[in-house]
């Protein structure tokens, strides 16, 4: 889904990029960043998409990946990628 909850058109690479960009924007709006992610769960519509997904995903974590689980499942709206993250919240003063 894009930021407006519209299903993303395009392949696995494009879907991964849109989802990761949305995650980055959301984290930044909360005072956090991608580097604060400590756990990621990824659902792929088919594990045959793993290589394309992983190539696009790797661009967002150039140093090291957070802990990650990747599973295959039937996804809503015929999407190929769903990503859920857990991140450390910034300390509030």
From TrEMBL:
It comes from the Bacteria. InterPro entries: RutC-like_sf, YjgF/YER057c/UK114. GO terms for molecular function: deaminase activity. GO terms for cellular component: cytosol. This is YjgF. It comes from Pseudomonas fluorescens R124. The gene is yjgF.
């Amino acid at each position: 889904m894009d930021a407006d909850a519209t299903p993303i058109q395009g392949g696995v690479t494009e879907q991964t990029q849109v989802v990761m960009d949305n995650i980055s924007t959301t984290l930044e709006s909360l005072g956090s960043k991608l580097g604060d992610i400590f756990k990621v769960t990824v659902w792929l519509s088919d594990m045959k998409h793993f290589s394309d997904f992983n190539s696009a995903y790797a661009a967002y974590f150039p140093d090291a990946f957070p802990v990650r689980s990747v599973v295959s499942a039937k996804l809503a709206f015929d999407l190929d990628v769903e990503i859920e993250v857990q991140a450390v919240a910034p300390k509030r003063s």
